[in-house]
Fold this sequence. Notes:
This protein has helices at 11-24, 35-39, 43-50, 62-70, 87-95, 104-110, 136-143, 169-181, 330-336, 341-347, and strands spanning 6-9, 29-30, 32-33, 57-59, 77-79, 97-101, 118-121, 152-156, 188-192, 207-208, 234-246, 251-252, 258-259, 264-269, 286-289, 292-297, 305-308, 320-324, 354-356. By secondary structure, it is an alpha/beta fold.
Amino acid sequence: MPRSTVARVDLEALRHNFRLAQSRAGGARAMAVVKADGYGHGIVNVARALASEVEKFAVACIEEALAIRSAGLEQPVVLLQGVHTPDDLRDCVQRGFEPVMHCHGQLDWLAAGPNPRFWLKVNSGMNRLGFRPEELDSVVAALGPSATTGPLLGFVTHFACADDLTSDMTDHQTRLFENATAAWPALMRSVGNSAAHFRPGQPLYDWSRPGIMLYGASPMIGKTGPELGLQPVMTLEAPLISTRVVRAGESVGYGASWVAQEDTRMGMVAIGYGDGYPRHAGTGTPAAIRGKRVRLLGRVSMDMLAVDLTGAPEALEGDPVELWGTTVSVDEVASCAGTIGYELLTGVTARVPRVCE
């Protein structure tokens, strides 16, 4: 019988979060970003759960788009990283994928045709992918006069600092993007990552691209998902497999990094960094048992971690321990581990089964 370590996926919470994204998108339509295996929740589970509400999905690469098609779903799928070989364009044509073209090499592949419907990436300051604003006139001209009335859908950019309300970079990027694309008012525009949905007055144009917010984690600095009205979609649970009293002066785990100052009832939980729980989450990181918050003790091992049971004196071996979920937000755990909720959700390994509820 397998251990009961599991990631429970609340599909109704997922739908709630998508509806919130759509409600905050103003006049824009929201495409659901389901890359990285649905941010660790299972791309097929996520896409099927949203299929009745979503007009368009977005992924990073073509293999993720193919997974959506293999699930029997027919919505257009935007490939945010474009295509990686000319052969990929044939799949895009046949399967209704919309690549985001971001460099001249990709545009050269279009010359052989036939062409899928596609987007152009504008580099408004992120400086990862895309054409600079001053290049856009020549890029569109090189596509030919029929491009703007046929395969070219519009323009995409990505914000670098939308999560930080004290930064003016998003306003700067918005102005650059708007000015760069103004010559083609009939084409669509897409700028809005999850964080942009929470920026007062931020234009989202035609399509927004909510990602992390769909899964209940916060896209904003200094806020947790629940504080933004989001519901946690993943609850990561593992069983309490042992309890003992650690005497004053005794330590727990590798490196003896935590030493009991007084006799302390402690429990071992069957999860560790081999399951994707962050190794850098140390003493004091919250967890929960029977709805009561407890704290981690010492270092996280590959397959186990220790918790202080003082806050849950009734806890027994076999009880499920919530590592993150409804009582403890993934954002809190991420903060303790010096990372972000995105990394924790996408990092849960394959040996933890996803159970949809």
